[in-house]
């Protein structure tokens, strides 16, 4: 079980309370698909992903990016048992969709960049550390079924 300081809990809750899900989610997923084009293989039914402009304008990418962020809400609300919170989703992504668990890490890195850009000077080193710890726990929980 992960230990969370009061600062970490408050920081994660604060970040998500200010999050523009319909902006941040699509931006993070689009960035991931552009920067790491091999991740596109899981989105073959999303249509045109031929270049950055097409990815950014793709409504299915935007919708899934928003869905991903709303999925992170579950972890924010269940910080003391993220592993159990994502057990079913982990099985879905590993056994049914066969998603490489490294892709969750790549997406979390892209999400960190987008959040940092949105928060600007408020994204201090301490805030970043708390956010990345949170994402690392989520990524570990989602990828756990593979190991």
Automatic annotation (TrEMBL):
The keyword Iron appears for this protein: yes
Cellular component GO terms, alphabetical: blood microparticle; haptoglobin-hemoglobin complex; hemoglobin complex
GO MF annotations, alphabetized: haptoglobin binding; heme binding; metal ion binding; organic acid binding; oxygen binding; oxygen carrier activity; peroxidase activity
PROSITE patterns: GLOBIN (PS01033)
Record keywords, A-Z: Heme, Iron, Metal-binding, Oxygen transport, Transport
Gene3D superfamilies, per database record: Globins
Name assigned to this protein: MN-Hbbeta6
């Amino acid at each position: 079980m992960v230990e969370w300081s009061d600062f970490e809990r408050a920081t994660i809750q604060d970040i998500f309370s200010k999050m523009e899900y319909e902006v941040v989610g699509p931006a993070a997923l689009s960035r991931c698909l552009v920067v790491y084009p091999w991740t596109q293989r899981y989105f073959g039914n999303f249509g045109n992903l031929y270049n950055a402009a097409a990815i950014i304008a793709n409504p299915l990418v935007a919708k899934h990016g928003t869905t991903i962020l709303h999925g992170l809400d579950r972890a924010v609300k269940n910080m003391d048992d993220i592993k159990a919170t994502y057990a079913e989703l982990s099985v879905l992504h590993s056994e049914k969709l066969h998603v490489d668990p490294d892709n969750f890490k790549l997406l979390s890195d892209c999400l960190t960049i987008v959040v940092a850009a949105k928060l600007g000077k408020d994204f201090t080193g301490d805030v970043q550390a708390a956010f990345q710890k949170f994402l690392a726990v989520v990524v570990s929980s989602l990828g756990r079924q593979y190991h």
